[in-house]
């Protein structure tokens, strides 16, 4: 699977960096190109650094748990309670929140979803109406702003300003705006995709104060919570005053590379939303797949050693990417992410136009188009850093060969 191949013994293979217990630097490009998942399958000939899947295989403890589940040969209805089943992952989540974030969660207030965006849309559906204002930090992970658009909610932007010191949001300006343009909810992406911003405690406190002042429901997408580098994640619901007005949605899918399993959990703080969820027809949102819950439980129970190791690898990649970019694409503007394995790169000084993704594609590198993240993404690309050192090196070397293209018609 990850036997030494083209990238198993290169400069960033077992030599300079060492590949460690889990072989994160031993990725074989041919193995990646044969994978059936979306990231590599659509254009196997390219170097794929777009959708947020990691190139490394998921933790062995998760694969072992899935195999053990198959070996038990019982794929019948799980015994998770009736008529409102709760997968075992809900209890494991509550225990893990206390252990990892020091956040005490009542497991009876945790619900399963088939994925994070389903949780976001369900809560928007139950707690807001078409025409209602919803605050969103921009640029934004596309399914979040598209959810607001498709559901007819009014997006109230908090635009990011990115400079060498970090990612900044102007909350005085947000408060001014909320006085004239009311909102009912804050849809937070914490940590933030695509900028990799990890909202520090003082910023979370400010957001909670704003939510209290303007009576906003907080819907917090915390899917990247375990991918922070310099400090442990602080759930916004753990900030004083937030718990009763916050729905926090988590998943093992990003940190443990399990996105195809389709599973998320949400802690639903507001009682009225818990009630509204219980009043929905019981099959409307589908049910959780037995194997998906098995994978989540294994990751959150036994996956911490792998998570620690992958974070070391990703942190190395984030430094390496910044260094390679400075050397080979010195005009690109980039600030290493404080969280996530996603790098947000401002290519405007490079003269590659509003859609630099096209120029990089033309030389064989597939990245995420900044324009998909909203108007602030023009001239930007998002680069997925979760690969081996050798492949990352080759991605940047190839990006450096990109040239301006004629405008797109
Ligand atoms: C911020 C954020 N939310 C949600 C998702 C998607 O989660 P799901 O597939 O569980 O809907 C992603 C995937 O990259 C993401 O980055």
From TrEMBL:
Q: Which family does it belong to?
A: Belongs to the class-II pyridoxal-phosphate-dependent aminotransferase family. MalY/PatB cystathionine beta-lyase subfamily.
Identify the residues that the record assigns to the Aminotransferase class I/classII large domain, covering every copy.
89-390
In its keyword annotation, does this UniProt entry include Protein biosynthesis? no
Alphabetic keyword roster: Lyase, Pyridoxal phosphate
This protein is called what? cysteine-S-conjugate beta-lyase
Q: Which cofactor does it need?
A: pyridoxal 5'-phosphate
Q: Which InterPro entries does the record match to this protein? A: Aminotransferase_I/II_large, Class-II_PLP-Dep_Aminotrans, PyrdxlP-dep_Trfase, PyrdxlP-dep_Trfase_major, PyrdxlP-dep_Trfase_small
Q: Which Pfam families match?
A: Aminotran_1_2 (PF00155)
Which residues are in coiled coils? none
Molecular function via GO: cysteine-S-conjugate beta-lyase activity; pyridoxal phosphate binding
Task: Please state the Enzyme Commission number of this protein.
Answer: 4.4.1.13
């Amino acid at each position: 699977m990850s036997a030494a191949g083209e990238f198993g013994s290169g400069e960033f293979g077992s030599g300079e960096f060492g590949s460690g217990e889990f072989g994160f630097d031993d990725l074989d490009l041919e193995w990646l190109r044969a994978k059936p998942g979306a990231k590599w399958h659509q254009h196997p000939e390219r170097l794929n650094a777009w959708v947020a899947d990691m190139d490394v295989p998921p933790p062995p403890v998760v694969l072992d748990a899935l195999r053990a589940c198959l070996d038990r040969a019982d794929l019948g209805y799980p015994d998770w309670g009736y008529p409102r089943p709760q997968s075992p992952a809900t209890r494991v989540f509550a225990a893990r929140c206390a252990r990892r974030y020091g956040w005490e969660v009542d497991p009876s207030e945790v619900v399963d979803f088939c994925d994070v965006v389903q949780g976001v849309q369900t809560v928007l559906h139950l707690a807001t109406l078409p025409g209602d204002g919803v605050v969103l930090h921009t640029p934004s992970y596309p399914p979040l702003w598209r959810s607001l658009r498709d559901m007819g909610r009014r997006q109230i932007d908090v635009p990011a300003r990115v400079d060498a010191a970090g990612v900044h949001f102007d909350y005085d300006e947000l408060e001014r705006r909320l006085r004239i343009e009311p909102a009912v909810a804050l849809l937070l992406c914490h940590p933030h995709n695509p900028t990799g911003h990890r909202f520090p405690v003082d910023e979370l406190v400010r957001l909670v104060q704003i939510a209290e002042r303007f009576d906003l429901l907080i819907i917090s997408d915390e899917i990247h919570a375990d991918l922070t580098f310099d400090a442990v994640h602080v759930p916004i619901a753990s900030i004083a005053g937030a718990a009763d007005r916050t729905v926090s949605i988590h998943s093992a899918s990003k940190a443990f590379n399990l996105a195809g399993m389709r599973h998320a959990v949400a802690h639903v703080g507001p009682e009225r939303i818990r009630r509204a969820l219980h009043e929905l027809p019981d099959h409307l949102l589908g049910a959780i797949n037995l194997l998906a819950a098995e994978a989540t439980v294994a990751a959150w129970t036994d996956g911490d050693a792998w998570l620690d190791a992958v974070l070391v690898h990703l942190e190395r990649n984030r430094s390496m990417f910044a260094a390679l970019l400075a050397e080979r694409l010195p005009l690109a503007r980039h600030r290493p992410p404080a969280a996530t394995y996603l790098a947000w790169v401002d290519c405007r000084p490079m003269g590659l136009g509003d859609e630099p993704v096209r120029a990089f594609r033309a030389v064989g590198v597939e990245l995420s188009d900044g324009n998909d993240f909203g108007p602030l993404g023009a001239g930007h690309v998002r680069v997925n850093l979760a690969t081996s050192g050798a492949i990352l090196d080759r991605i940047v070397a190839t990006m450096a060969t990109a040239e301006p293209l004629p405008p797109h018609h």
